[in-house]
UniProtKB/TrEMBL annotation:
Name the record gives this protein: Alpha/beta hydrolase
Keywords: Hydrolase
Sequence similarity: Belongs to the AB hydrolase superfamily. AB hydrolase 2 family.
GO MF term set: hydrolase activity
Length: 213
């Protein structure tokens, strides 16, 4: 495990034939928060876990917001570009090369993963979004997402990520050519054990798909 770069982060190479999980924490979290998920999602995987660069009342976040669910979309766009640049740096610095990278984000981390997937599919083509929502309200999505695969895991009673926003997100992803896996459970904001099992199966399916191509 190495901590380098002026953007605080953690890196572990994992097995050379396994994906690298880009771990993106929720509001108030750190680069350590999602590490326990690695062994459950893909035990042989490497991980790249940066810390959200924005501060909100002392809490780490990935982009600014004006209030709950009211995102500063200009900042979302800027920060997703910065994350894409960081991923490119990490691929070179750590010798990740062309290994598959799968973003795994929770809440605010899911939203930055989704924004980066929508705007920079060359950086994030595969993503697992736990309790995420559509992050680019009012802005068009023009990228070709035909090589992208996105898994959305949401609670139907989640006031922080309303289900209508999730439905819109899925429709926009599909309209741009992405493959979308949707899983909606009872309950609200959070990561349910059933969703971890579902995400692990989904990540494994990506690996199998590559081996069969």
């Amino acid at each position: 495990m190495t901590i380098t770069h002026d953007w605080p982060h953690l890196f572990h190479a994992g097995a050379a034939d396994a994906p690298v999980l880009l771990l993106l924490h929720g509001t108030g979290g750190t680069e350590h928060d999602l590490l326990p998920l690695v062994k459950e999602l893909a035990p042989e995987a490497g991980y790249l876990a940066p810390r959200g660069p924005v501060q909100e009342h002392g809490m780490n976040r990935w982009f600014r917001r004006f209030g709950e669910g009211n995102f500063d979309v200009d900042d979302v766009i800027r920060r997703s570009g910065e994350l894409a640049d960081f991923i490119a740096w990490a691929r070179d610095h750590y010798g990740i090369g062309e290994r598959r990278l799968v973003a795994v984000g929770f809440s605010n981390g899911a939203n930055i993963a989704l924004a980066t997937a929508l705007l920079h599919p060359g950086s994030v083509a595969d993503a697992v979004a736990f309790s995420g929502m559509y992050p680019l309200d009012g802005r068009p999505v023009e990228a070709d997402l035909s090589g992208s695969s996105i898994a959305l895991f949401n609670g139907k009673a989640d006031a922080m990520a309303p289900i209508d926003s999730v439905v819109r997100l899925g429709s926009i992803l599909e309209s741009r050519g992405a493959e979308v896996h949707r899983a909606v459970r009872e309950g609200g904001h959070g990561i349910h054990p059933s969703e971890i099992d579902g995400a692990a199966a989904w990540i494994a399916s990506l690996t199998r798909k590559v081996s069969h191509d």
